[in-house]
Amino acid sequence: MNKTPDNNPSRPSLPPPAADAAEAAMEEALGAHGSAADRGARLLKPSGRRGGIPAEPHSPLALDSPPIAHPVFHCKDVNMFYGAKQALKNITLDVAPRQVLAMIGPSGCGKSTFLRCLNRMNDTIPNTRTTGTITLDGQDIFAPEVDVAQLRARIGMVFQKPNPFPKSIFENVAYGPRIHGMTRSRAELDEIVCSSLTRAGLWDEVKDRLNAPGTGLSGGQQQRLCIARTIAVQPEVILMDEPCSALDPVATARVEDLIDELRAQYAIVIVTHSMQQAARVSQRTAYFHLGELIEIGETDRIFTNPRHRLTEDYITGRFG
Amino acid sequence: MSSRRTLRKLTNVVALVLSGIATAIGLFFLAAILWTLVKNGVAGLSVALFTQMTPPPGSAGGLLNAIYGSVVMTVIGILIGGPIGMLAGTYLAEYGRTARISALIRFVNDVLLSAPSIIIGLFVYELLVVRMGHFSAIAGAVALAIIAMPVIVRTTEDMLNLVPQGMKDASTAMGAYTWRTVTSVIYPAARSGIVTGLLLAVARISGETAPLLFTALNNQFWSSNLGAPMANLPVVIFQFALSPYPNWQQLAWSGALIITVSILVLSIAARIAVSSFTKGRH
Ligand SMILES: Nc1ncnc2c1ncn2[C@@H]1O[C@H](COP(=O)(O)OP(=O)(O)O)[C@@H](O)[C@H]1O
Ligand SMILES: [Mg+2]
Fold first, then answer.
1. ipTM
2. Which residue of A121, A252, B134, B227 pairs with A244 in a disulfide if CB–CB is 3.0 to 4.6 A?
3. Residue range A240-270, pLDDT digits in tens
4. Domain ranges in chain A?
5. CA-based nearest residue in chain A for residue B182
6. How far is CA A156 from each of CA A119, A212, A268, B170, rounded to the nearest angstrom?
7. Which of A282, A230, A315, A250 lies closest to A25, judged by CA?
8. What whole-number distance in Å separates Cα of residue B100 and Cα of residue B259?
9. Interface mutation target, options A121, A124, A239, chain B, most CBs of B under 10 Å
10. pLDDT tens, A16-47?
């Protein structure tokens, strides 16, 4: 686990390059993989990418070391369009098992869109189109024989806003097992509900009122209920889209602890707008910018030694 | 500057006064109607009203067969129109929200919503009465169903659209098929809203006269045969009110009072359901 001390809450308290030493830091960071002359040459050459982002000598995945041996998700050249508007451009990345991958970047850069590609939730939005390959455990998720509902059952998703169903706490957690016919007896269902709530750290708080409506819980409890609901169907991977953005700091800390525990069993992809959170909970971090994946790598490395200037600008708080 | 201010203030006062007067006029007529209805209707309220059949001119009687007929045809009308309307509303809100045919369906539904009910009556007359060769309660119920349907389509779609997208997405992301999301998550979330729509539809059809005149017609006697003409409050009121017989006129007043009070009760129930619905969502 990568607990970075938070001395300065307004900005991620990261090792240099710090914002104060902006110029020097930038020189240093860029110097890490190219001389000033190289840099000049690159700037003079026409950009290889759209959107005016300077071309990098290597693709983002090539910068990632070591490569992921048995990725849960393997994404290659994923492009995604809302109507005519392209929201994702040639995203290539792997999601490793039993690890947390954080996705950061300025708002509107396509993090949520990419997350929704992974469980094909973008299919539910009219006029969208996705190209490229995404495999889950080696199986193409866009293959015609894939049943989308069954695919989604293997992938848990936790949303930005806690969204419990208008049902009791018990029925919220029992929903997934029920719709997938996972249990044969009531005792079995009770067992799943109990263990899911326990793992979500909610059992002690709700065990006396399992029949109370889920919507009556506090925001943080609701989000943990949603996590319990998600893990009740034993997914292979959990996608989280800014799961703490509607929560207070105490509830956030609880959910982060939970993510850290769940990592032992699941691959987790988490979108976050908080770089401190990315630094605290993730092992790898991907930085998105205007629909492109700029850089992906070990979280420690991304925050201490970003290889791309855009990444550095973002993590030092210079924009976004 | 200050003259502009004065002008604005003056305009405001004039607008206030005018809208106040308009409101007063509206309320006055409403009160006058209710008062006339209560004054004339209450005089005829008796046990016999609810226990005896519509009488011949000059003799004593009640409205039992008409009340029964109205209830039966309204219930059957909702039983036919309710499920069809709910399913159509569900299609519009959840399946074909952006489909081109949905725009067409919404348009046709709005036309149907504002179609004069006498047209519906004539349509069912051609469709059922002419073919069966006689008036019947079932034809009346079908006419009422056709009138209720667009109301239910509309309210169902509106109420389903009020269910937060996040809740629907959560179910979809768990791997639920759409029908499962609809029945297990969306309907329960929108339940009181949908019930409200049904109540409003009942209120809408329980006073309809024209379509029943062409379909169920009337029946002086007790009849529970759906294939035969059946008495009902609106047509009885229509017929009795136009008659020269004082006892019939009195029954018409009392029947009108019964319908008005039932619609009032239904509307209040619907309002309570709506407020509990919107409250439950926060
Ligand atoms: N349903 C949608 N229809 C059209 N455009 C969308 C939709 N959702 C997102 N976008 C656009 O796609 C881009 C990426 O959005 P999103 O993935 O939500 O960004 P992020 O989660 O990184 O803030 C944005 O420009 C946004 O406006
Ligand atoms: Mg987002």
1. 0.78
2. A252
3. 999 999 888 988 998 999 999 999 999 999 9
4. 73-315
5. A165
6. 8, 24, 9, 9
7. A315
8. 41
9. A124
10. 433 444 444 443 343 334 333 343 333 333 33
d(CA A98, CA B69): 68
* DSSP summary character for residue A57: S
C-beta of residue B96 within 8 angstroms of C-beta of residue B160: no
**What are the structure tokens assigned to A170, written together?**
């018990």
Candidate from A124, A150, A165 with C-beta closest to B175: A150
CA A65 to centroid of ligand 2, rounded, Å: 27
Report how far residue A189's alpha carbon sits from residue A177's, in angstroms, rounded to the nearest whole number.
7
Is omega for the bond preceding A17 within 30 degrees of 0, making it cis?
yes
Mean pLDDT, residues A2-27 taken together: 40
Whole-angstrom distance, CA of residue B108 vs CA of residue B122: 18
CA angle at A60 for the pair A54 and A66, rounded to the nearest 5°: 150
Q: Tell me: the pLDDT tens digits for A62-76?
A: 455 567 888 999 999
Task: Say which range, B109-113, B237-241, B278-282, has the weakest mean pLDDT.
Answer: B278-282
Query: Residue written as tokens 């469709």?
Result: B127
The three-state (H, E, C) secondary structure of chain B, written as one string: CHHHHHHHHHHHHHHHHHHHHHHHHHHHHHHHHHHHHHHHHHCCCCHHHHHCCCCCCCCCCCCHHHHHHHHHHHHHHHHHHHHHHHHHHHHHHHHCCCCHHHHHHHHHHHHHHCCCHHHHHHHHHHHHHHHHCCCCHHHHHHHHHHHHHHHHHHHHHHHHHHCCHHHHHHHHHCCCCHHHHHHHHHHHHHHHHHHHHHHHHHHHHCCCCHHHHCCCCCCCCCCCCCCCCCCCHHHHHHHHHHCCCHHHHHHHHHHHHHHHHHHHHHHHHHHHHHHHHHHHCC
Place of tokens 């894939």: A146
A247–chain B Cβ distance below 8 A for any pair = no
Which fold would CATH assign to domain A73-315? Rossmann fold (3.40.50)
Which amino acid does the sequence have at A64?
A: D
Amino acid at B58: G
DSSP single-letter state for residue A169: H
Nearest CA in chain A to B181: A179
Report chain B's terminal Cα–Cα distance, integer Å.
46
